[in-house]
Automatic annotation (TrEMBL):
Gene3D superfamilies: CBS-domain
CDD domains noted in UniProt: CBS_pair_SF
InterPro entries from the UniProt entry: CBS_dom, CBS_dom_sf
Name of this chain's protein: CBS domain-containing protein
Domain CBS residues, every copy: 29-70
Amino acid sequence: MTLVQMQPRPANATPVYRTAADAMDTGGPQVCDDMTVEVALAVMASARTGHLLVCDNDGLCTGLVTQAQLAAVSDSSAYTDRVQLRDILGNRGPFTFPVTTMAEAEHAMRYRQVDAQPAAEEQGSALGVLALAG
């Protein structure tokens, strides 16, 4: 998995550092953290996506949930139809900031062993999702 494809460039070319803002997907669905797991799975299926960006009632990004996470929760013996996304997210973050270089973002994601993570402004407003390309 990699974020960028390498292409040859002239030896005298100035290096260009692309940022997370250049690579993030801003078109994916954002949902509120009071949504139930069951509804989130339905939204994910209808949007044909493997993850959802989750925000609180103030519009601040609280995290990202994946289909695998939601499936594991719904398959657990403790699952009820009242479990909300905020119940499974835990602490806020980690986030990628738009000015983060793609190399730094990719390194951090590989270190955390995640394929996608939210991109947010410093104030916490969700901007999109940065995902490793398969």
